[in-house]
Amino acid sequence: MILPPSERGFLPLRNPARLRGAIVGPVCNNAARIHHAMTKLKLETFLPYRLNRISAAVSQQFRSIYGPDFDLSVPEWRVLATLGQFEVATAKAIGAHSAMHKTKVSRAVKALEDRRWLRRRQSEEDRREELLQLTDLGRGIYLRIVPRAEAFEKRLLASLGDDAGAFLRGLEMIEEQRLDGVPLDSPDEGGQT
C-alpha cells in the first residue's frame, strides 16, 4: 500500500508524469515507514537556527546604521570598530577579536587603507607584522558611527523590556561555555555585524 502524500511528509508532484520509471510499490512504502520513524527536527524552534536567523536580521538592521552613509561592508565595519576600540592592532589580532578569516580582514584593511581611513606601520618587535591604526579621517568616521551604534543597541535592549538582563546573562553563558575554541568563519561564509 502506498501512503497518500500528506502521510509521507511531502506534497504531491504537480506533474505526475515525472514519476515514470520511478520505484513504486513496497520499496516506496518501506521508505515512507522509515521516514515516519525518523525523528524530525523542527528548524524554526532549533536554537542554533534561531540564533543565526536573529543574528542575520539584527546585523541587517544594524548595517543600516553604518552602511548607507559610510559605504562600509560588514568586514570593514568590524575592522574600523576594532581599531577604534583598541587603537593599534595587527590584522591577526583583528581577525581573532572580530571572528573573521584572515582573507576578509585583509580585504577590509585594503579597502579602508584605500579610503585613507587606516594606515600600516611595521612592528618594531616583529618586522614580519604590520601594526594597523585609524587615521584622523578614519577615527572621525568611527566617532560619527559610535553614537548611532549605541542608540541602536539601546533600542534593541529596550525592545526586550524587563527580560533584557536575563537575555544578556544567557548570551554571556553561551559565550563562556560554547564559543571558546570555535574556529573563525571561512573566507566565503560567516557571521554578520
From TrEMBL:
InterPro entries in the record: HTH_MarR-typ, Metal_resp_HTH_trans_reg, WH-like_DNA-bd_sf, WH_DNA-bd_sf
PROSITE patterns the UniProt entry points to: HTH_MARR_2
Domain (HTH marR-type): residue spans on this chain: 44-180
GO molecular function list: DNA binding; DNA-binding transcription factor activity
UniProt keyword terms in alphabetical order: DNA-binding, Transcription, Transcription regulation
Coiled coil: none
PANTHER family: HTH-TYPE TRANSCRIPTIONAL REGULATOR PCHR
Protein name, per record: DNA-binding MarR family transcriptional regulator
Lineage, highest ranks first: Bacteria, Pseudomonadati, Pseudomonadota, Alphaproteobacteria, Hyphomicrobiales
